[in-house]
Automatic annotation (TrEMBL), chains A, B:
InterPro entries found in the cross-reference section: Metal_resp_DNA-bind_regulator, Tscrpt_reg_PadR_N, WH-like_DNA-bd_sf, WH_DNA-bd_sf
One Pfam family matching this protein: PadR
Domain Transcription regulator PadR N-terminal: 18-91
Record protein name field: Transcriptional regulator (Transcriptional regulator, padr family)
Amino acid sequence: MQPEISKETIRGHTTTIVLNILNQGDSYGYAIAKTIKQLSHAAYDINEATLYTVFRRLEKNGDIASYWGSETQGGRRKYYQITPQGQATLDHNIQEWNFAKHVIDDLILGRIDADV
Amino acid sequence: MQPEISKETIRGHTTTIVLNILNQGDSYGYAIAKTIKQLSHAAYDINEATLYTVFRRLEKNGDIASYWGSETQGGRRKYYQITPQGQATLDHNIQEWNFAKHVIDDLILGRIDADV
DNA sequence: CAAAGTACTGTGTGATACAAAGTAGTTAGT
DNA sequence: ACTAACTACTTTGTATCACACAGTACTTTG
């Protein structure tokens, strides 16, 4: 059993991962990083810089919105919230993944048909 | 049914795809591109530049070897052949993919456990 | 009071897939 | 004979994305 997932394989899925987590309730950077580690059974420990890059990308696209938490003294937290558009993106990405899984299976496990 | 697989999802799998095809017999660029299209049921039409980049990368790593075909007049073809090391890489990458599939499923479909 | 943990941000780098363009030979249609 | 489509390989430049590294700042614990 591999302990970690490779960068190149996870690439392209980080936004969907974050959307899935936010779809279950508002959250903030540090907590999301820990949730990712937990959901992946420690196979993926997302880099902080990566995570905040994902936030910026998603917010720019309108898939998430953000607001500062009400922690008055110190320990500021920026909360993220999925938008209706983000939920649509999530649905779309999940379908895309389910499709891609089969295509990649065919491509890396498949035998070449003699007849065309 | 989506017609095409997204670039970001296929990324990182191209070398494994090529290794799988070469593991079934020597072949050359153009033919491999068509095999990829066929195996993916037209979901992935690899760009030529991408394919030749993959060849260079794999040859540099020692996973494949190449030789010019014996077509004496015109229509030159460069054939590629998987090496024993390439077969080991293929096996490794397939295991990695089977592992990654489950991790990504957990990450983009998984529910967050209330208890930690 | 120092160390570890929580929490957010910016800059720069590396890997990779592809678009675009070029070179060159072959085959099929009119 | 000519042109278009197809076969076949290569180079250059670009875009995306994940991350390493570095920095800022507050809190908790020994």
